[in-house]
Amino acid sequence: MTTHAPNNYTCPICLGVQGAENDQTLILQQDILYKDDAVMVFIASFFIQGSEGHLIVVPTAHYENMYELPDAVGARIFQTAKAYAIQMKQAYNCDGVNVLQNNEPAAGQHAFHYHMHLFPRYESDDLWTHMGNKRLASAKERLEFVQKFAK
Ligand SMILES: [Zn+2]
What we know:
Elements: H1 12-17, E1 32-35, E2 39-43, E3 46-48, E4 55-59, H2 71-92, E5 96-100, E6 116-121, H3 127-130, E7 134-136, H4 139-149
Antiparallel strand pairs: 1-2, 2-4, 3-7, 4-6, 5-6
The protein binds zinc ion.
């Protein structure tokens, strides 16, 4: 199946799933909102202007892209994404939610472990204009969004 991960690829998402915090992954354990035997949800390390604190949903097992994702795992991801989209509506008081999932570099995939983005949307946030304008968020900034989900 199609793969773009280089040989000896150290997967930053697998490291986060395994609980690692080091210079090979941007995921901090504090960023993780949910994890079970198949799925994990965390606050994205990169913030997009106007849509800060977006969520990433991943399988806990390594699959590079949608093409190789087992249907049963895909179903779990969808169920989890739906639940978190609904929670995000309340937690962020956003006006809508976008789902984005990129397969292969031509489609904008940078991390070679399947991941689905959930972007909070606000009236007039102009997200698509700002999509290329991302910055690494600090641990403190991410924690502020984690805490919006803490009930
Ligand atoms: Zn991985």
